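Q: Give me the 3D complex with adenosine monophosphate.
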Amino acid sequence: MGTMLHVAVWEADDAVATASLRAARDAVTRLDSLLSNYRADSDVTRVNGAAGSGEWVHVAEETADMVALSLEFARETSGAFDPTVGPVVDTWGFYRETGAIPPPAALDSARALIGWQRVEVARDPARVRLPAAGMRLDFGAIGKGYAVDAALAAARAAGARRVMVDLGGNIGVTGGGPDGAWPIGLRHPRYPELPFAVVDLQEGDAVATSGDYERFFVHDGVRYAHIIDPRTGWPVQEIASVSALAPNGTISDVLSTTLFVVGVERGCALIADLPGVAAVWVLAPGVGETDTPLRAVVGGPAAHRIEVGSGLVVSTCDDAVR
Ligand code: AMP
Ligand code: MG
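A: Here is the predicted complex, encoded as structure tokens.
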């Protein structure tokens, strides 16, 4: 998945601790081997390679689960989250480190390949089919959160009671932390060493952050980053980061990306009725705006659990919709 895994277990029994750490790591390794876009032999790479051939590709049950779940989230977010956005991400070059604004014709043909509604998934046996050549599945916006949930479940099954899993900034916990709670610092989108906020994770909670600092390029002073609005094919430019607190890792990962795409106003409406969910948007500074404090918006039913530090100008979803 192109990132680092960090698992912490608080446990008196050495054997249980070791078994739990291994189980967590194995669960993530297993999903990585199925879902990674970086591996030539993963289920996802094989499905993408067969796109447009008419052939069904046999996959592991977990892969079919991931596809079905992603399509459900795509439906629920009206396509703001879309696991088929890959060809457009590729056109912008974020993963090649040679990013540039694509020629309109290239962008148009890549956009024509987006469409979660066209992904086919079936069971007994588990299989997936993409109808058009060039279509691709990309679980970059959900896979890490999903793997956090799998790692926590595996560690629990191996006997651990107090576990924290951090997979590239997707953080999930089970049981109480070393001092009862799990205060997690959220990374400032411009000063990585300074958390700009703290969120209190409780049993089963997870938090994920999507940022414009992860994969991006700058052209004429404008930052183009890796989260794409599937309706336009263009990177979202108004947001620097979104952190989402949710009852599990999968939802927090999907939400961080989705809320980045839909922005503050639609995002506030989207999470208003989701129990246990909270989000904080950090708005992108304007071009040349380097000395002004960044603005943050906090919202969602669990908003009280996110505490933003004094370095930012904070408002709430209530202010935003008023
Ligand atoms: P995250 O860091 O979880 O927000 O995931 C970002 C990654 O998800 C990007 O690098 C792309 O591979 C992919 N992606 C970008 N835009 C979208 C989108 N609108 N829906 C789903 N995946 C996306
Ligand atoms: Mg995400």
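A quick observation: The chain has a mean pLDDT of 94.
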